[in-house]
Amino acid sequence: MKEFRWIIREDIPCWYELAWDEKKPAIILRAHRDFIETAPIIAPEAHLIKWLMEKFKFQEFIGDLKKNFGFDGSILRNPEVTKNGFLEYLVPLPKIKVETGNRCKDCKGSGKDSFAQSYGDDDRRCLYCDGSGKERVCNWQMAHAVSASLNVFFSISRYPKKETSASFPQLMLLDTTTDTDMHGGSLWGEFSVPLTKWLASLYQGGNTPIPEISQATKIAYGHMFNGLRSFDVYDFRAYVGNDKGGLVFDCPGDACGIHPAGWHIDEGGYKFSCHNVDSSAQQITLLAGLAALHDRARKEMNK
């Protein structure tokens, strides 16, 4: 673009968007051809890439959006899908908690909580294997690869060099971090003017739920951690909290989720921020929710 334009102040033709596939499950990333033509090819020697490669011991990085993109095959280009000038990429959600095939060392295969059993409580299931009796371990490598790859994509797509020929506007812009420290899965961004108006139109007083987000975040988190245990009612809540379109939604963690960066929302769009998003899994869960939100918003706006 020749001059700075901001989606929270004006409509700008879309250059990328997210979608959600709950059956795979996967996040779908779409990028417009006009954007891809001017997007930089990121060399493996770039400072951020070298840091991520060394930090997480990735095996490979591809920085060309005309191919599979990112670290260790985590963003897959679908050469057979091109619609409205957009190329499509599949981001399969990783399995983090996996069974080893061995019996659980804590409950010795019984599926019962050994500590509770010592007090005569035989009904409580083992927290380590979730009652399966099978040993489970967490493998974070592909979750880090997905997070790091999206981190790079969002970085290079923040300021496109030219407007695309898309007939519909960009709905949201995203930024993420990838680390293993506190707040290592943080994400933030902006919601556009039309998306904010659409969110405001959903408000019916109180906290108006958005079930599509809750459903997507449950599926995403459950897939990564081999099923859902009993969670608090707040773990997957998603709602519009005021008549200006203020969106809040959460995932499991210590008050973990996204919210408006400030509740004074004027007639435009607004910035959103996050709280206590410490892991790649939490970040991916929230991105799945944003993808589901994008699906519903685009569909209803087109009507």
Main beta-sheet annotation? 7 strands, antiparallel
Question: Which class of secondary structure composition applies to the elements?
Answer: alpha+beta
Distance separating the two termini: 29 Å
What is the gyration radius calculated from CA atoms?
A: 21 Å
Would you list the SSEs in sequence order as H and E? EEHHEEEEEHEHEEHEHEEEEH
The percentage helix is 25-40%
Overall pLDDT level: 92
Subunit organisation of the chains = single chain
Number of helices: 7
Strand content: 15-25%
Strand order of the largest sheet: 9-10-15-14-13-12-11
Count of DSSP strands = 15
Q: Choose one word for the global shape.
A: globular
Low-confidence stretches: none
Number of domains: 2
Outline the structure in words.
The protein has 303 residues and is an alpha+beta fold. The chain is built from 7 helices and 15 strands. A 7-stranded antiparallel β-sheet has the order 9-10-15-14-13-12-11. Strands 1-2-6-5 form a 4-stranded antiparallel β-sheet. Strands 3-4 form a two-stranded antiparallel sheet. Strand 3 (61-62) and strand 4 (70-71) form a beta hairpin. Helix 2 (47-56) packs antiparallel against helix 4 (141-156), helix 4 (141-156) packs across helix 7 and helix 6 (211-224) runs antiparallel to helix 7 (280-302).
Give me a quick take on this structure:
The chain is of the alpha+beta class and 303 residues long.
